[in-house]
Fold this protein.
Amino acid sequence: MMRTYIKKVVNLIAAGDKDGASTAYKEMTAVVDRMAGQGLIHGNKAARHKSRLNTQIRAM
């Protein structure tokens, strides 16, 4: 589930849709944080995904 949300953001960034990527990013952060809170992924991995995608969105 988490990877699906990440892929949506990555695909929108590749397509050049900044507004769509920002909206998808907000949905993705909630899912990633939930997975990290449940211990399914490490907190640092969640932070790394969020940071890298947010940097790409801001660079658009």
User: Anything to note?
Assistant: The chain has one domain: 2-58. The mean pLDDT is 95. The radius of gyration is 11 Å. Residues 2-58 form one domain.
